[in-house]
Structures are given as C-alpha cells and as structure tokens.
Amino acid sequence: MKKAVCIISGGMDSAVAAKIASDEGYEIVAVHFNYGQRTEAKELESFLAVSDALGVAQKYEIDLPFFKSVGGSALTDKSIAVPIGGVEEGVPVTYVPFRNGIFLSIATAIAEKECASAVVIGAVEEDSSGYPDCTENFLASFEKTANEGTKKETNIKIFAPLLHKRKKEIVLEGIQRGVDLSITWSCYQNEQIACGVCDSCRLRLKGFEEAGESDKIPYRVKE
Questions:
Q1: What is the pLDDT of residues 17-40, one digit of tens each?
Q2: Does residue 47 contact residue 9 with C-beta atoms inside 8 Å?
Q3: Does domain 3-211 have CATH number 3.40.50.620?
C-alpha cells in the first residue's frame, strides 16, 4: 500500500488534506510539530483527535523548541501581539520564519525512512494570510530539492490538495468527505474558546459563512 506522511497541525486545512490523501488510497503516517506556539496544547489535542478519526497507526510528535529562540513571530513570541484588526495585505507578524520549510524537511526525512511516496501539507495559497512558504512556487521548488537530497530510489511528491481552494471550498470538501471539523482548531491566541478576531479565526469563520454552514467550535466573538 502506498504511504503518505501527512503534516497535521490540528487545524481544519491539514485535517481535510489528510482525509483527501486517505480517500486516495494512501496509508497515513501522521506528523505533528510542537514548536512553542501559543496554542501548542490545543493543537496537539486536535492532532490526536484527527489522527484517531483517520485510523492512523503510525504517529510522530516532534518537539522543535528552537523556534522560540529564533523568534520573529507573534505565534512564538508573546511580546508580539497577535493582530486582531482583520486580514491585511503583505506578510503578517504571525508568519513563523521558514516554518513550513523546516516542517517539510523533517517530514521528508520521515518519508524516506518510511518508504513513503508523498508528503501531504494543508498549505493554502488562494485564501490565506499570505505566508511565503504556502505558495505553489515554494512547494514545487521544495519537492525538487527534496528529491535531489535523498536516495536515488526515493521519489517524494509534495501533495498540497487545498493549495488553490477558497476556505468556503475547504469547509464544503471537509463536510462532504465526513471530516469532523469540530475537533479541529484554528485560533492563534486561545486554547479553550477561539478568539474569533485573529486572522486564522476570521478566515475560518468566513469560510463557514460563505459555505452556509455552522462552525461548532466555541468563539468568544464572531465578526
């Protein structure tokens, strides 16, 4: 059976991407990263719930504490406020420097060890916060680099099935495929009740609203 290493943050996008891979016949190897983010405990809880829902047997939980030392992001440095004024143009302060590049590098190493043929990531370019490591060009370049730097018999595809989808489409895709979106978590700030005003909450709520669906996770406010 073909294998895919799925980077699962615990968020909606990665959960739907992993389900698509599962539906396409991949045996899922789930990978989660604890990197000192504000909602680390909640994201881990959601990762475990998503993995259980997918029937994943092989899971990797990897700690990357150095992200806090690097800093430069509101997600890992509590002295930098998480923006709550709405999604802005440009790269926001919630961008974690080269996070996906580092995640993909580790996932590639796991894929080579597991003899997997794909690394799955829930990156979204079309309807996102504008992170530079969530673009088609970046992922295509990384795939080339990954295959240059691994064994000759290793042939890894970077699979980002949601890359050009809107949040509305992701919500509908998840519901259609039977993903329980209520066990996923997107808020950048809070672990018990989502703030409703950070970029991630706003994009998620907008997606549910445009899809005509109700988001069942708790929110402090809904704008």
A1: 999 999 999 999 999 999 999 999
A2: yes
A3: yes
